[in-house]
């Protein structure tokens, strides 16, 4: 007899949501997380008197009544137990030619950008109509997934029902912007936060960008006290409903019997731990990178799953510089929550990928100032902030320990100087500074390439073509940024929900 109804490998948002939903529905759940806290990238860490936010700058769409997270969070009791803060605007965009604050309200954004670029009025309105039309249709498909409709049965009439999804399946953000707008600075403004999703506008799925971006234009949110609050609450739902959450326990293999996943082998995630334990369940849910899951399967069961993912492109990674400030940046004159700063070498959308692969001295970045909201991350009068930019594990591999430490120090200093240029006087107020590289992300999440996004959000890997929540092995399911619908907080949350409902339907 199985010990559990479901064993979940990993405690990121996808696994936590799947586990919380299953436990709430009366299923016996065991969640195994190799880190000492749940959450994956939805975590925080303490440094002296500062709470550092690992991954969340802002969450999209929570003020949109059609947003799928509304259904998920209401069902799991999130709104009664986790506080969400509305952000003051979408973002500020700054380069040597432009300094524009983009509102998080579509009507206001259209008015501001049209006043700034009157010759582009038609293209601006077309852009906003398009992203909201795509988001509306994407949200309309959610009940179909939720109620387990077979979407492929709708394919003969799909273009008639969801024309924006059907006719933009292979569209990219860069080519779409080129088709409706001539001014290069306006294109950069509209795509300023491309790093939230991907590293190249010309391979970025227009659909994926539009769904999230339109959500931000409904108003962005931050979790008061940090994203760890959401992760801890979801873990509590599992435990309060009779489930188990074992931290610092690493799954070493998936047990397959009669061609069906029936359990896992695992051990304590300590250097001295050698004892291999096992647990059995009716289903196994992998909230882990799919390439890692392939390696967990017995050799005879790997090939089919490996073939499914072998040609998929993994997403880029990130580098983050964490700051603890002895004085709030807003007291030094900073007025904005998110500021995207582009180097003067970025003159067109086509310059963005090269910039992300170029030297750190010229690399574009975003500075997030948590002092602009009541974040709950620092004592009164002090604050935290982060600088974040796209990066790649290859930039940090094959370095000795000494070389790695020296490079981190050098990069941190470069971005400190950038921040001082942005907000004069802030450098002397830095009470703590720490840098997280793609190697850091890989160490704490075990994700290949150190990516936080899973597979890249390119058209042939966007939601319509994404790896489904059911694996090639019976009884094994996926719930993570690596599967449908994709990366980011919202994508991971929805994947956990899809997975849980698929398991419940089967049972």
Note down, in words, how this protein is organized:
With 507 residues, this protein is of the alpha/beta class. The protein has a domain at 4-45 and 59-81 and 225-312 and 459-506: FAD/NAD(P)-binding domain (3-Layer(bba) Sandwich). It is 36% helix and 20% strand. It is built from 17 helices and 18 strands. The protein has helices at residues 13-24, 68-76, 78-81, 106-116, 121-146, 158-161, 163-167, 173-180, 184-190, 206-216, 228-240, 290-296, 299-309, 352-357, 401-422, 438-445, 488-506, and strands spanning 4-9, 29-33, 44-47, 50-53, 84-86, 91-94, 99-102, 221-223, 244-247, 249-257, 260-268, 277-286, 317-325, 338-341, 365-369, 383-391, 430-436, 476-478. Strands 1, 2, 9, 10, 11, 12 and 18 form a 7-stranded mixed β-sheet that branches. It has a 7-stranded mixed β-sheet with strand order 7-6-14-15-16-13-17. α1 links the parallel β1 (4-9) and β2. α1 packs parallel to α11, α4 (106-116) runs antiparallel to α5 and α12 (290-296) runs antiparallel to α13. The protein is globular. The mean pLDDT is 94.
